[in-house]
Amino acid sequence: MSVAIYHEPQLVTHSPFARDPAVRLLVRTRLKPKGVQQARRKHRTRIEHQLAIEAEARVEAATAQKTEPDLLDRFFALPPEVRNHVYRLLLVQPCKFNYSHNFRCKPLWYEYPGPAHTAHGPDSNMNFACADCRWHVWHQGLPVFVSPARSQWAPPMTNEYLCDNCYSQNIRAKREPHPTLRNLKCLCARRENLGIFLINKQFYTEASHVFWTENCFAFENPTILIDFLSGIRPQTRSLITRISFMIDPDEVGVSLDRKHVQQCWRLLRLCDGLTELELDQFFLSNLRWVLGIKNITPKTRVVFMRTPERAEILYLMTYDQRIWKGVSRRQPVKNILTDTLADSMLRQKPMTGKATQALFNRQQRQENGDGDDTRGEETL
Ligand SMILES: [Zn+2]
Ligand SMILES: [Zn+2]
């Protein structure tokens, strides 16, 4: 009769003076004779076997009790295209740049602790504590600030005594890339109905496919793009089909460090399911960036967009309800550089470095008004 091999805990026998009392005790007890060990193992196997049979019986009994199909059975009896349409209605939202504030909108404040809805009144972030940014009020016994922007789907915090800003910056950022709350203006453009992923495994598999392949993922600065695309699994990244990457003219102090932006191109190249890409034409103002962009190969559409100048947006401030005032008014740009670049990207044949450089220089000359083409127009 064959007996399953068990790995008995390895006892430390070389030092009878172990520091741990538990180990010391173990060393003193003599091992039981072989026969006894074998009998115990056999007994243990029998119990485990019995438990497995009982669990199986319980599942069978539950299935037998069900007399008529429940809602889930009926849902999964629908044809897949109908199910996908249900997921689409629940999970696919327009590009976030096109959102307007709703009438209940409460903007977020980034004064520490935060982000909070208001800096004044009883709900104000000033009536709360945080072990980092508001440690000086700790002795007053105030509750720790929990931001209304905190996602219920985020992994649980490993330190409950910090506000969301401090936790993200001091702890989570050191462990994993993650989209921070820093850039949220309000919660109007938040994705909805994500809870349906938790219904069961089949829901998750089917709905997440629709979610990732049919939504547009929009980023208003390089940091958000990097944090998002490097934080998700590579398999998920390959599902993304639509990306919009703009620079928000409304935002001051966007980090456009060269290495930082190059990392964006690397990550976008890794999105191998990409079909539609929208890029800020601002990225065409630097040859190094153009050399990075040319290697991204979306399948059906590449557009370069221009956002209005900051002054134009300032004039809108008083009545405009759009969340991203500048980016929502983006317009496609067409010139020799955008056309040739987009064409080579769509044909999946990136231009050579030399050709890109020549094209870039030509466009620059044209913009500065001293190119051949412009001079030709003037003489006409
Ligand atoms: Zn809003
Ligand atoms: Zn804090």
TrEMBL record:
Regions of compositional bias (Basic and acidic residues) in chain numbering: 364-380
Origin superkingdom: Eukaryota
Region (Disordered): 358-380
PANTHER family on file: F-BOX DOMAIN-CONTAINING PROTEIN (PTHR42085)
Protein name: Uncharacterized protein
Organism lineage: Eukaryota, Fungi, Dikarya, Ascomycota, Pezizomycotina
